[in-house]
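Ticket closed. Logging final result for Putative restriction endonuclease domain-containing protein.
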Amino acid sequence: MTQAKSRFRKIEDYLAYDDGTDIPYELVDGVLVEMGVENPGNIAIAIFLISVLLQLSVPHYLIHRGTEIVVPSQSVTSRYPDLIVLTEACWSALSGAKRSLITPEMPAPALVIEVVSPGEPGEKNYDRDYIDKRKEYAARGIPEYWLIDPSRNVVIVLHLSGQLYQEIGRFQGQDQIVSPTFPGLTLIAEQILQAGV
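Final structure:
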């Protein structure tokens, strides 16, 4: 990933920015960071989960891919999770917006899911998903956060307790996923992890 030279001190400046390209960026501490090409396996996992959520009778308009969320950090930061499940209140606040962006004034979504890119502790990819986003999503008040890590064959479900996430579990193989947001979920870790193969 390459970094653009633009630096933003306010989210409003970022929202007004247009570089005339279709290049997707995340905003990290006020700096645009070009997002790499998305792994087809990660896309397949997200689409599989969309189909599962629809079967759970989650309304289609609450399931989002490509929606950006502004998160608290040391500077201006926004993220593009692989999948977001909105609450009705969040959807109402987002409806009619010019851009699919959940701002700090809007209610938090119910669930954020990240499909982890390969990396080891101390490397950017690993630290971003396991450390940075965990802190940012907790500070944003998102009740549930899933990390799906195909390279480690694990699905980690975190639930917000106070201001920090607590692990509900690390699910592998035939382990059934436990989700406080979706107690009726009947899905095993292997089904999710194999969806991207």
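The longest strand covers residues 154-161. No further action required.
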